[in-house]
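can u do me a favor
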């Protein structure tokens, strides 16, 4: 009787210089990456897990980056793909959201520019629109940079941004009328 083991992929350990470079990058960019993960996931606790899981996936390939300027786009794309992968897991289908939150929700640092009301409206957007609006207007990226970070075309970024802004205007008007 022969048993076949699962195929294992062995990745060489990164050298000390690569680890130091990666650690300094994470120390410098962690708040921005956490905001991005929070915008993708829509929840600060999931964002922490998402960021950590993504950084674990990025470290073995950190030394292979051709340009240091591409690091943010690479990590953001990894965060987005990790989130999509998590959403495809079978156990996610059985998860039921509830209105009861065990502790107060908040941003990792604070709401952008201290505007919790607007940020709550941004969180109500679908994930792709939220990502496009957040990168374009909160992170200040261009259309091309946003497209690179999301791994889509510039046209997709423009349409998601347009739809997201229209939805924000609608939500803001509804909130103003209700309040």
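np, heres the sequence
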């Amino acid at each position: 009787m022969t048993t076949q083991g699962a195929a294992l992929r062995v990745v060489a350990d990164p050298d000390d210089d690569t680890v130091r470079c990666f650690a300094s990058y994470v120390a410098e960019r962690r708040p921005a990456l956490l905001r991005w993960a929070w915008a993708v996931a829509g929840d600060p606790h999931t964002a922490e897990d998402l960021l950590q899981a993504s950084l674990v996936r990025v470290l073995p390939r950190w030394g292979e980056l051709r340009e240091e300027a591409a690091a943010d786009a690479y990590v953001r794309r990894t965060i987005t793909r990790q989130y999509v992968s998590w959403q495809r897991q079978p156990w996610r289908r059985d998860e039921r959201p509830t209105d009861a939150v065990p502790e107060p929700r908040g941003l990792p640092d604070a709401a952008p520019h201290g505007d919790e009301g607007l940020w709550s409206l941004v969180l109500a957007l679908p994930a792709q629109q939220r990502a496009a609006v957040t990168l374009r207007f909160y992170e200040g990226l261009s259309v091309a940079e946003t497209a690179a970070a999301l791994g889509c075309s510039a046209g997709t970024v423009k349409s998601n941004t347009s739809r997201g802004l229209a939805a924000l205007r609608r939500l803001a008007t509804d909130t103003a009328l209700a309040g």
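The radius of gyration is 19 Å. hope that helps!!
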